[in-house]
């Protein structure tokens, strides 16, 4: 698939990225750790859709050549 930019046809690339979603009060916050984009929505679906849009806009300006997979893990933190 191609997109048209400044009159020239440019090939469209795709990438499979990670979304980390968490609930913060009445909103869901979605983050893409590979590129650092963050968005939110009142539902998980809306947060993910907004993240997709934000990430696509980011990648138009700052394309990536290789996307590495983040290492997701858990850890314990003590606090008072």
Overview of the molecule:
With 80 residues, the chain is α+β, with helices and mostly antiparallel strands. It has a domain at 15-61. The chain has one helix at 44-61; strands at residues 2-5, 8-11, 20-24, 27-32, 37-41. The strands form 2 sheets. Strands 3-4-5 form a 3-stranded antiparallel sheet, with helices on one face. A hairpin with a 4-residue loop joins strand 4 and strand 5 (37-41). The longest helix has 18 residues, at 44-61. The protein starts with a strand and ends in a 19-residue tail after the last helix. The model has no long low-confidence stretch (mean pLDDT 90).
Secondary-structure blueprint of this entry?
Layout: E1 2-5, E2 8-11, E3 20-24, E4 27-32, E5 37-41, H1 44-61
Q: Can you summarize this structure?
A:
The protein is α+β, with helices and mostly antiparallel strands. It has one helix and five strands. The chain has a domain at 15-61.
Distance between termini? Answer: 54 Å
Mean pLDDT level: 90
The tally of helices reads: 1
What is the CA-based Rg, rounded? 16 Å
- Strand content is 25-35%
Summarize the helix and strand pattern as letters: EEEEEH
The major β-sheet equals: 3 strands, antiparallel
The backbone outline, from C-alpha atoms, is flat
What characteristics describe this protein?
alpha+beta, three-stranded antiparallel β-sheet, two-stranded antiparallel ribbon, 5 strands, flat
